[in-house]
Amino acid sequence: MPIKVSVVIPVYNPGKYIEDCIASLLRQSLPDDEYEAIFVDDGSTDETPERLDRLAAEYPHMHVIHQEGSGWSGKPRNVGIAAAKGEFIQFVDNDDWLGDEALERMYNYGVENGADVIVGKMAGKGRPVPLELFRKNRPHANVENAPLIDSLTPHKMFRKAFLDKYDLRFMEGRRRLEDHVFVAEAYLRAENVSVLSDYLCYYHVKREDASNAGFQRFDPVGYFKNLREALDVVEKLTEPGPLRDRLFRRWLRNEMVERMRGQRLLKLPEDYRKELFDEIHKVVVERFGPGVAAGLQPTQQIVAGLIAANRLADVEEFAQWESGIKPSGTLENLGWEDGKLSIGFTAEYKSAGEPITFRADGDKDLLVPPLPQTSLDAIALLGADTSAPLGKSKVDLVVRERATAAEFFQPVDFTREKVAVAGRDGYFRQVLHATSRIDPLAAANGGGLDAGIWDVLIRIHSCGWTKETRLGSVRSEAAGHGRRAAVVGSPAHVVLPYWTDPHGNLSLDVDRKTNRISYEFAGHTAADVTVTTDPDRLTVALPFHVQGESEAAVKLTHVATSRSVELPATVAARTTGDAELSAGLTPGELEGGPWRLEMILPSAGAGKPVALPLVLDVSASGGAEVKPLAAAAADLVAKAPGRPKPAARPAKRTFLRRAAGRLRRALKK
Q1: Which is catalytic among the residues 20, 42, 179, 439?
Q2: pLDDT in tens, 646-668
Q3: Global pTM?
Q4: Can you tell me the distance from the alpha carbon of 171 to that of 173, in angstroms, rounded to the nearest whole number?
């Protein structure tokens, strides 16, 4: 069988961090005879070489090449390319890992679209990854119609014949940004690049000890010498003009301007800060024309202008101001509508806890940074735009899976409002009013949300700031009333919106990843539910959302004997907005005494029973009465033989203490 994909992994002293990488390669859905993994050990001095030798001996499609240390990852990647037998080559770092279906999906997607390069959706575990690039699938992408230039790490799949055609190889030796040179040239030479965004393919991981090579402080002179080599590639393969300026803008923004902003700059030692600034200034004045900075956001233009004017002190002052700017959001309403969770919220930026203000100047809106007029004049002379393009402000709502960092954009409708600042004529703040609807069955770029904890975040884009914050800790009373569990889809999925502890942010528990749903129902009292019993049916109305009608079950457990009976049931939507649980009941076939009531929801993720705050009390004559759990517990204590009847209040207090203990234990799970 021909090899479809060769995975090349450069390896140097990864220690325990390589185990996740190995495990993900062994889990691939692609058959073992259709892919290979090539570990190129670049002179490791830990136990990794022996670990890889054992792996290769056990699995025929796992290979290892040992070589003397070269000092960086370029040479081992090139050695892997030379050894690869696959139609495509996927590069993986030894402390990262792949999604279980990544190779199969990326290969099929690349073949289907005739791609030379396939970029799979990435998740950053403690480190940044591109976001806009993966907003949607892009089967036919290039540097002009997609933000490919935002993703210059090598963790992609490349057609081997394409690499050989142009002799595309990594620069070798101890150096920086060799991946920028390689990937930029690949983008510019490729006939087609395909971006796969509906499956999480690559997990980009920051080690717990932060020892990844990319996190180490670098020598500014060497770093920006290497950066110029990436710029050389762009100059070689493009003509002067808007496209080249746009591509250059990526390096100006990410590698220069963003290093000179906020706490990222201020936390650096002063001597290193000065050395870094000087090298950045040299590149800016040597290589970038005015069209490069002109396309940046206003705040980025300010920093770029100050860099070009060689005004480090003003850059530091601006950084002090920006370091206090934080995004904020208020959850205004929350509720289920036709199986979708509707979230209404407002969002704005704040500085030092107060809303950021802007100044109106005729038909222009202006930023008001705390800079001396001489600096503002210098920025203006360099052509930087200090107006505030508030008409372009926007907000996104995303859901992020806590364990994997998988992230998906949700649809958002929003409006912009200017709110006048009292006592300051001409000054105002901007508030974004937004509504988003999360469809658990389609929220993952058209696919359903996997079982897990999904945190809800908002990301505000305005004036060159793109910052995110959790949503929910500041909320209205109406939002609290709208929070309830839901059963959606077929097979059904249970989705529980809840407030995190201790901050009170909004998260979604999909398919009962925790025991919180039991806690939610245990918190309800008889006053929260409607119970009816007739000779042959038990009907309970419960405060959760359900679409249509689904099969379920009721589990009855006799308190004294622990005998359990499971009754078929249905869960159906009621016109009142809650759900109705209905089960056939024949009290004459049940032993006398109290029976605990549990509901088994029709969940695709877990079918564990959910305790209800109710007890079915069957009399000796066969009649049945539903009682609140607390009242039933008090009755049991009062009727216990051979002991005096305790006062009702202590019995109730004891029961509640025990119930509270159970709830606390459930919450910790």
Answers
A1: 179
A2: 454 444 444 445 544 544 454 44
A3: 0.82
A4: 7
